[in-house]
Amino acid sequence: MVCGLLACAFAFGSVQAAPRQTTRSKEKAAAEAARAGIQQKLNALKKDISRTESEKEDAADELAESEEKISDANRSLRELADEQAETNTRLKDLATEEARLGDTIAAQKRQLAKLLREHYIAGNEDRIKLLLSGDNPNRINRDLQMMAYVSQAQAKLLNSLRTNLAAVEANHAETQNARDELEEIAQEQTSQKTLLEKEKAKRAALLANLSSKLTDQRKQASRLEQDEQRMSGLVDRLTRLIREQEIAAAAERKRQQELAAARAKAAAEAKQRALARARAQREERERLAREAAKEAAKTGKPVKPLPPPKPEPEETRVAEEPAPKPEAPQRSADTALAADLPSGAFESLRGRLPAPISGKIAARFGAKRGDGPTWRGMFIKAPEGTDVRAIAAGRVVFANWMRGYGNLIIINHGGEYLSIYGNNQTLVKQAGDAVKPGDVIASAGNTGGNEESGLYFELRHLGKAFDPSSWIRF
């Protein structure tokens, strides 16, 4: 029987588990689907701004598609590199675990082989020989118990061996799954790199052809004014949308609180009714007990036992149970722009906010901008690809290409405070993403037709731009 168990254990270990299908693609598809509603709404805002402008021709528009694709490709490569590093770490851990399991299984097989050899040498009829030996019954009983202990140890060893063999097969399957994911990542990286090189070449050609035209356009005051109006229009629409969502969220919180209060009140009233019924029932039983005692004293008969108390109604027991806590409303595309931060959180950081990028300030708020309007923000020179970081916690409410600002990202910090980051090469975060202070949200560039590489940065409150100098530690 022991040999049969060993054969089953080895056969189990030899079966090759079919490699599992990776879930990475499904998870990515689900994440993209969750963003679809947000992005559709923001794209509609962007198109609405374009329709309201009288000027439809702009040389920078020809760069929009190319610069957006370059940003997407760079973001994808960054995400794929992070995935690759995590998967490689997981593979190393799996290899270490597989080596440990292999050593354990080898030791268990050696131990089992030794037990089987000893069992074979002793013979398979040990129990019968002992019973027929005519030896002392106490000794026979002791020997039989010892043999039972040995059999139990063998069975336990076999079970442990089976468990470890199953763990090895699971390890193999997970390792194969991780290798499949690495292959998927490598294929996507190759595809994204090809796309990136293609779009960079296209953008270089466009810049060469449009360089002089872009320079002329940037000198025109009307173009700069249109850029500012475009930004103000976008901020006003986003501010209104965020305000509407915050009002809706506050109304939902109030509704949940009122519902919880109503449940608590109903539970308290039910409990009071139950206590009153219990008190009345107890008093009634005490009265009946007194009357029965008097009757027994008169007649000399034993006191009759009182009937058991009536069971408490089901609705009372249910009402006395604590009401379940209301579930937090699910974040949908209509509430994904709310910052979810306490009131005054951003204002309390005034003068202590970190700079969004490391570089040289080339233009300050309020300075004259050539022959055009004054600067509504700051321009910080920095090499292409330099990390751009969130200055405070918040939620990304816009991440897209915009005429005059290139790849643009806007973060809502609550209290109707917005931080704006323009001219980026790559947008790392997307609309709806929550960010923490110092998170990398983009990389510096010169998109939108800007002549120099760097970051255009603004702070706005209630839709109006204000000087960041007293807020940011540059």
Automatic annotation (TrEMBL):
Keyword Protein biosynthesis found: no
Keyword Calcium among record annotations: no
Region (Disordered): 49-70, 272-334
GO molecular function: metalloendopeptidase activity
Entries under Pfam families matching the protein: Peptidase_M23 (PF01551)
The M23ase beta-sheet core domain, residue ranges: 375-468
Record keywords, A-Z: Signal
Origin: domain of life: Bacteria
Ranges of biased composition (kind: Acidic residues): 55-65
Compositionally biased residues, Basic and acidic residues: 280-298, 311-324
Signal peptide: 1-17
Name of the protein this chain belongs to: Peptidoglycan DD-metalloendopeptidase family protein
Organism: Massilia cellulosiltytica
